[in-house]
Amino acid sequence: MPYARPALSDLRAQVAADITAGLPTADGLLRFSNLSILGTSLAGLAHLQYGFLDWIAKQACPYTSTEEFLEAWAALKKVYRKTATAASGQVTFLGATPGALIDAGTEIVRSDSMAFHAVETSTVAGDGSIVVAVAADSPGEAGNTPAGSLMTLGSAITGIPSSGAVTTAITGGADQELDQDLFKRMLEAYQKPPNGGSKSDYEAWALEIPGVTRAWCNPNGFGAGTVVVYIMLDDANADYSGFPQGTNGISASDNRVTSGNLAAGDQLAVADGIFSEQPVTAMVYVCGPIPLPVNFTISGLSGASSATRAAIASAIREVLNEYGEPLNGSIVPLSAIESAIAAISGTAGFVITAPTDNLANTLGYLPILGTVTYS
């Protein structure tokens, strides 16, 4: 039976009762009585002590710990908070003078004043174009930039136009891991101890990489001896609906790598991270699932406001994120989607007319929300 922590009012009443019992001939509870003031102070101190003991009890258990104590419990299972990482990609400037240079460290600024820098010195090619590898000055998701975004030089360079554009999406930026995300990974580590390369091991190794929020493992996915790991970066790659930006393949450190199976971009970062943990004989392919839009038709809500429709779309996405996976043998239950919509105010009387059955997950494909039609 859990201990019932007394409320402050209960402590005050208890102290007042003790004062009255100890001084039966004196009224120590009058408004300005020294004993009354002292009793109120003692009750407050006792309440603070109860609160501190309550906090200590929470930090003494992995399941309820927070902040640095959560990190300490997680570290016992070799689970560490993912640090923030800086985004990187490529920017191209056209119409430059052949032979002109952009030195490493040159500032390049996005239209919203987000600062980047050239990773290495680049030279203008004979066609007047110059491709510059850039990285964000500050780590975090804010540095992720879709292809086509406008970029400008921080200061003028002779022979180089001031304006350019992102030609290879700037990705890989991730914020520092939040407590709730670290808690999920820590709990997985306690519940599923390493098994020398089990399915859950590969998923845990992928989730250790900054930016990765979901991962699935398909043993022997590309034949005997292979392991296919599907990943999603829901926050870092929000501009791309969370799908990784890169090329599916294996780690550059694997001695079986060729030009045809080398991973790139987000997939390469995860493949390289898994390589140091995986069994030496496995050939691990890191892949991005293929988006599979699912269209919905909902009757009974033709007059729903835009706010209600946005809430419905958000609710459906949450269910798809929870149950959707690029593996065979599982489903996204239609009842879970109906329950999520029913919990939204103003949706009474709705009926989902399409799809009419549970959504079967398909190998290699990840269900995402398509269009929602109201009738």
Could you list some keywords that capture this structure?
alpha+beta; 375 residues; 4 domains; 3-stranded mixed beta sheet; 8 helices; 6-stranded antiparallel barrel
Instruction: Indicate the mean pLDDT.
Output: 93
Query: How many domain modules?
Result: 4
Main sheet summary: 6 strands, antiparallel, barrel
Which residues sit in consecutive blocks of at least 5 with pLDDT less than 50?
A: none
N-to-C SSE series? Answer: HHHEEEEEEEEHHEEEEHEEHEHEEE
Strand order of the largest sheet: 1-6-4-3-7-8
Domain Baseplate J-like central: 194-288
Domain Baseplate J-like C-terminal: 294-375
InterPro entries: Barrel_Baseplate_J-like (IPR006949), Baseplate_J-like_C (IPR058530), Baseplate_J_M (IPR058531), Phage_Baseplate_Assmbl_Protein (IPR052399)
Domain Baseplate protein J-like barrel: 91-173
Q: How would the blueprint of this fold be written?
A:
Layout: H1 8-22, H2 34-59, H3 67-75, E1 88-93, E2 101-102, E3 107-110, E4 115-118, E5 122-123, E6 130-136, E7 150-153, E8 163-171, H4 179-191, H5 199-207, E9 214-219, E10 226-232, E11 246-247, E12 264-265, H6 266-275, E13 283-287, E14 290-299, H7 306-323, E15 331-332, H8 334-342, E16 351-354, E17 359-360, E18 365-374
Parallel strand pairs: 10-13, 14-18
Antiparallel strand pairs: 1-6, 1-8, 2-5, 3-4, 3-7, 4-6, 7-8, 9-10, 11-12, 14-16, 15-17
